[in-house]
Queue: 4 jobs
Job 1
Amino acid sequence: MKHATLRCRSAALALSVAAFLIPAVADAAAAGPRPGPSSAAADRAVVAGLQRYAHPLRSAEPGGSGADLAAFASMTRGATVVGLGEASHGSKELFTVKDRLFRHLVEREGFSALATEMSWSAAARLDTYVRTGEGDPRQIMREELQDGYSLLDTEELLRMFRWIREHNRTSAHKVRIVGMDVSDAGPEQYERILARAGTDEPALVPELRRHYTALRALPGGVATRMAAYNALPLAERKVIAEDAEAAYQLLARAGKQDPWVLQEAWIISRMAESYTFDTDDPAQLAAAGRQRDRTMAEIAVWWQHRTGGRVVVSAHDGHISYETVMPAYYPVTTGAVLRELIGSEYLAVGTSLYEGDYRARTSASAAGTFSVGPAAAGSNEYTLDKVRHRDFYVDLRAAGRDPVVRNWLNTARPTFVIPGRYPNRPTPPLALGHAFDAVVHLHKVHASVPVPAPVTAR
């Protein structure tokens, strides 16, 4: 989840949560209630119930035996889309454990796409790399993962993309990368649409060029382009959105249609619409969050229906969950829309941590390293960490068969849902049983490692 100021949408509400710009609260109200002695017996019963369904993780690092993940794979049977969340956008082990789970789902369960919380344009470049080997992934990440997306420019994700490339090089079962977010559209996306239209319906090209004139005139570079777009008057942004929608409708009515090009035009239309919300208006701010999460869900489902392959959706816990922790800003989550669209074919897997470090962007847009935890008594993580395994995963649906555990799961408690901005308030109340189907809990995490900038020769 991404930061957006009320005046400037930055990367269109990506990668941190606006409402978490409240300074961190260190008092008991922020940490949540501390149970008294009378709750000790109930707490022990909850921990015992969780332990019956918890499966220990051999490691949070990818590689090695996957025998400990057999039960996890079983949990995903019947799901065509699995959401893998992250409690923070800036913690190393949250990225690496997702990498490990993703590899297992690819190799053992036949998953064939990674749908990520980055723009369609950025993912298209990475997809070309993992399919063909074309391009340098470090350079692609440096050029595309800017502004609010910069927290994803990490060594952990680089290793994941390189593994996908190596898998595709040697396996007949190919894996693709999909961008679900619509904060930006690079120049290549417009060129693909115009080139295909020139082949299929050349008479449409002049009108398409006219509709895309303002968007294609935005300056180069992701951060620069988004800042320039944000700086345009709201009335002008609304005209641009009307043009983008007109371009999409023009292609949708064409006699010969390419579904992939039509999808790219639809995504540009959704992107342009996302810049039309007046975020000084609380109702409009909520509408912007609703539009973004619905769009991400619709892109993931479109890809799954179009290809027939199983998809892993990789995003913040606040997106892949069924319930929002920020109803005023994100009234409907991606996970809730996925459940609406495909029912039980969607499985939400959240991540949890007891303590550790994370990277986040400060008000000056620089990245810093910050700490959370140990989890306070009364929080979800405090109880999860009492399970005898240091790191583990648990099927909440199965654990909820125990009435004591079910009551605990269905009660909202302070939970680490850490935004990409600092200072923040990282422990909103959340009922795990309402938010996720399963949870991966890690005892301790460390800050993610940014991909180092290239050394300039002198």
Job 2
Amino acid sequence: MCALVGWSVIVWNQAFAQQKYQQQQSLTHVPTHVANAVLPAYDFTPIEQLLRDSLKRFDGGCSLLLMHNGRVIYEKNFGTINADTIIPIASGSKWLASALLMTFIDEGKLSLRDPVSKYLQYLMGTKATITVQQLFAHTSGYAGEMSVMRDMKITMKEAAYRISSEPLQYIPGTRFAYGGASMQLGGRIMEIIGEKSFEELFQERIAQPLGMTKTSFYGLGKTQNPLLAGGAKSSAREYARFLQMLMNKGVWQGKRMLSEEAIAEMHSNQAGRVPVLRRLQSTSANLTQTNDVADYGLGVWRVSASASPSAAFSSSFSSPHSPPNLVPTLGAPMTASSSATLELMELNSQGRFGFSPWIDVRRNLIGILSTYTPQSKMQATYKRMKQLLREIIPVVNSPIPSSTSTALPQVQQISGAEKKH
């Protein structure tokens, strides 16, 4: 009997080890020369001690997953949450939604420089000048937060029309107001071009190719108006697949999902280092955005080296369409070429519920701290944890493109633009 029990334990341990191996292998689709590299040994004792000591700051606990050069180098659960727990990821959704947008740009069906009025023709005046880029860079002129963006009883078509009817708060392209209301307009444009619902497009173009079988934009419930800026649900392990695809320069399991040029565009400073309007942002946004000028890509925060003197604003901007009641501009947004001198250090898309995915560009490091905890409650631990990681893991060369490119395809003509509600 004892022999039988002992054999059962051995079999169970082997099965468990095989399961963990398969989970790690599912995240390690990297170039051969990287996969064959010797995995360094790191001492994560300070990280583990910090998270154990801070467990009271996490509602239900947390899970930390780290990948370096395409391999899982640390995975630890604290409390009831693990790397496979599906939770609402809030602003982690923005990175996913922006990647979906870039698939259409790769196909030449859309351009970031397109005016939104090309697809939503009911936009007039200054609103007609808003670009697709500005919708996802939070520089559209609209307030960041509107209640209609979270209305689950309406369609995205209805949401886009109602959001577009709201007054502008500043001249498009001259201020940064983090939120996501304008992203719903971008979602509607994708529905028009793709001729399917946003969720269907996300599943077909992002989730299914990556094997993110439980990730969707129904994190707040099933709806025809999924919240691009914060409505997705996922797990650390599934989201890591998405980040690894970005680290692989757009390739997953030998198949190209995004061009290198699209990733470079997405991760460059699309906001143009314009001033931040904190009064139009949520409290959680002001926890993340601590600078006075924006450093933001498409759906993702950038952490860059300090701006050089050449990044100063000019005073030559003017617009014939600028209403007198809008906030005046300090100058033209800084161009991609002028911002290219700033070294990109990190990309992140932390959510207000604590789910925190990031890429440490200089260390080839993917990190996901998964939790369902108010951001304000766990933020101090999160920042300290990343500081410790920077001390543990040395700097290497950047693994992903991080500057804009002019090699994106030309936009094709499409039909289906909405002229009125």
Job 3
Amino acid sequence: MKLRALRYILLLASAAMIYAGITTGEAETVFRKAAYICLECIGIG
């Protein structure tokens, strides 16, 4: 029973962190950096 409760607590905590990141604009920053890394890897950027 403790394991099940721990799973739900971790699920809620991770959802809260994802929501906080999205609302502060961090998702856009992460995607932009990923795109730059991809472009540099293939030699365009």
Job 4
Amino acid sequence: MSAARGPEVHVAEAGGAEACGRGGVSESSRGGLLPMLVAASAALLLAGALQAVSLVGRVTDPAGAALEGVLVSAAHAELSFGGVALSDAEGAFEIPDLAPGPYVVAFEKQGRLTSELEITLTPGASISLEQQMRPALGFSRAPTRRPRNFVTVDVRYATDRSPQGREGDRQLYSAHRGSKLRYGVAQVTIPRDHRLGEFEQPKWWKLEFRPDPAKHVTLASVVPQSPQQFAEALAEGSVALVFVHGFNVAFEDAVMRTGQLSYDLRFNGVPILYSWPSNGRVQDYVADQDNAARSSSRFAEFLELLASSTETAHVIVHSMGNQVLTGAVAHLEGLADAGPYVQEVALVAPDVDAGVFGDFAEKVLALGSRTTLYVSANDRALIASKTLRGGYPRLGDFDSQRGPFVMDGLDTIDVSQLDSGFLGHSYYGDNRSVISDLFHLLSGDKTPADRGLQSVSFQDRRFWRFVP
């Protein structure tokens, strides 16, 4: 990116004052110093949250025409707080919930000179920036400021959720069923010091009360697109990766998870989220199951668009999202004769009745060139689901009596030997060994043996297992 220093802007209220004091600490008071510091820090952060300031503005070219898609980032000059936004069709942007203090605001867009401003935000002050960006004109200069401490991932999405207004640069989607498929693109930020398999979010016990792109996976923007715009964006990439989330997942969390998964897999293509209307609450399990079933026809419609717009695509489906997939294949007429729609299909911890899946298995296998099933005996979520259904095994469960689901044309992989966390259900994005296996799965034609998995036989049925 090119860089051009902008003017410095300072906004402060008249009459502002600071006060500080200094005092000694006696030996007898040192025992309570740490709790006092923690309480003081919490009070300061809470005060900052209550006095949060929104930074708004508009970005244009030198002629005054609005610039859409400008990445605007605000980084606190002294702390690690900050925020990001994407300018809309009118060039407008908003970064909410900023703590008072000095900031470096950067404006970035391909083909334009990167510009920076220094501003100071104070409680109660009103500030609106008007920023112009000049064409790069074929030359570049390294930014004079410190490098940005996060990276961005563009995630395309398709959803049959109902829209629910806007919040700054983000189109919101509810847990209610929509009347049609809707498309768009979201921008997810990943901290530069992100650790593989981590989904970094603010934690109250760390005194983190708002998302910070330098520390957390955040959602910068959600911009709707027409079906034509969506298809054109897919056609520009050589390969696409579709993620279908499971039960108890809100739209925003699903988008961020897709961005994290794409980043961890080092995926060099177009990441896509298909989001069905999960209610995002544990107590709404039955409602989620109904919504997943209803979304099947819409997901089939999406798969038709995907197949006609991309050269190569892969699909990773988690948990109850597999009910969406299983139902969708029934709506794809002539699937077996048409040939595979996608390359790789990964069914991860599928919350689907194993017997019901068996009825649809041939069609599911016809969807991709290769299908891989990940199962675990330690998946507490699926154990609970099986209990609710009278003990009938789930597809993603490793039943101690029956063993895992195995059939010709399906690579079944047992992850029971791995540390998959307390619930043992989200290992697709949490466990490094599974992420590594998915990486190699998407990278070529490597067999499970080529990927270092161990061949196992159970009641004369062959499957694969991770070696701890």
